[in-house]
């Protein structure tokens, strides 16, 4: 049986979630995986993906990747979730996907979330 690790000694872990159209997901995943997301001790490039419908209405000075200002858009998107072993990894991973000028994610305002995980 393996040695038990105290919860107090484990660093905080996070889940990074992002949404993108199917044709862009692999590019974004490559960027966040290269930054360290999606790793477990004996595995790499781990994620969970589900299909859904994204909805948005560009307003004001928006420059949307898809659609037009003032028009409600509904598009097929993938939701991708992956583990990040630290806050630093989560920040680095999302920055790699969303930083200019070489951003991997094509949206002007990408939909994403970062959740801090609890151990039980």
UniProtKB/TrEMBL annotation:
Domain of life, per lineage: Eukaryota
Segments passing through the bilayer: none
InterPro entries: DUF34/NIF3_sf, N-reg_PII/ATP_PRibTrfase_C
Name of the protein in its database record: ATP phosphoribosyltransferase
Provenance organism: Neurospora hispaniola
